[in-house]
Every structure is written in structure tokens, then in C-alpha cells.
Amino acid sequence: MTEQSKDVFAKVDSLLAEAGTTRENVFSVQIWLADMREYDEMNNVWDEWVADLNAAPTRVCVEARMAKPHYKIEVLVLAAL
Fold first, then answer.
1. Cα dihedral sign, 11-72-66-69
2. Concatenated DSSP letters for 29-69?
3. Cα–Cα distance measured from residue 76 to residue 27, given in angstroms and rounded to the nearest whole number
4. What whole-number distance in Å separates Cα of residue 79 and Cα of residue 23?
5. How many alpha carbons fall within 13 Å on the CB side of residue 31?
6. CA dihedral in degrees (37, 78, 74, 41; nearest 10)?
7. What's the gap between Cα 77 and its chain centre?
8. What is the torsional sign of CA 81, 3, 42, 50?
9. Do 5 and 70 touch, CB atoms closer than 8 A?
10. CB 2 within 8 A of CB 41
11. Rounded to an integer, what is the distance from CA 78 to the centroid of its chain?
12. pTM for the whole thing?
């Protein structure tokens, strides 16, 4: 979970940059986990990812069956440009 979470949030940073914005402009994040027992691992990565922000964006995190069995996390991020 830790590695997949790091990869996902790094990809989010890349996509934000491509769109001409940063995580400072993220206002909503939805996170789906394959197994909520791995929540703490993901949350540690989340805490690092938002540590330098003035305020963390609104977030929801739920358990869901993933499209592929090796996926542990999926994320939807909404940000202002």
C-alpha cells in the first residue's frame, strides 16, 4: 500500500503540473482502497503529501473492489487552475 500510494500521489503531482496547477490548489480528493485494513499505510503517505500545504483538501476515503486485483488504491483529485 505504501509504495502504490506514493506512486499514485506522485502521478497526481505530475498531472497537476501538466494542467498548470499544484497541490496547493487541490480542493477535493476521493480515495478508494481495496482493503481498509491498509488505511494507516495510505494515510501516512497522505500526511506526507499534504504536510507542506496551508490546509489539507477535503478528503473522503472508502473501501471498494478495484478494477484489477493488484490495484490497492485509486484516487480522484479536483483542483482549481
1. positive
2. EEEEES-GGGHHHHHHHHHHHHTTSSSPPEEEEEE---SST
3. 11
4. 8
5. 23
6. -30
7. 7
8. negative
9. no
10. yes
11. 11
12. 0.94
Q: Give, for 78, the enclosing helix (H) or strand (E).
A: strand 73-79
> What contacts 68, CB < 8 A, 6 or more positions away?
none
In angstroms, what CA-CA distances link 12 with 7, 21, 42, 68?
9, 11, 15, 20
Q: In what order do the strands lie in the sheet with 73-79?
A: 58-63, 26-33, 73-79
Kindly state the cell numbers that stand for 54. Answer: 496551508
Per-residue pLDDT tens, the chain, 81 aa: give them: 999 999 999 999 999 999 999 999 999 999 999 999 999 999 999 999 999 999 999 999 999 999 999 999 999 999 999
